[in-house]
Design a protein that fits this description.
Blueprint lengths: L51 H8 L3 H4 L8 H9 L2
């Protein structure tokens, strides 16, 4: 939660490749009743393991600094503006 290493486990995982969807906040993608209760404010996914320094540096970035594509003026933000009127 704060970018500080609490535990380290040795293992051989190798590169993880999959064509399956990634689900955050659910145990099973195809089970609508398996979602956890609560809210997720922000999630970031990388294609490689980050160092502790990289994690802490990323935690300090604003959305404008870490988003590859700016959401400003895109369909999702436009629709959000319309819904809030």
């Amino acid at each position: 939660m704060d970018g500080k290493l609490e535990q380290e486990i040795e293992g051989k995982f190798g590169e993880m490749k999959s064509t399956e969807s990634v689900t955050i906040g659910s145990r099973f993608a195809d089970a609508p009743d398996s979602f956890g209760l609560g809210f997720l404010d922000e999630a970031r996914v990388w294609s490689r393991q980050l160092t502790q320094d990289e994690i802490q540096a990323n935690m300090k970035l604003s959305k404008k600094e870490f988003l590859v594509v700016s959401p400003i003026g895109k369909l999702a933000t436009t629709w959000g503006d319309i819904k809030n009127r």
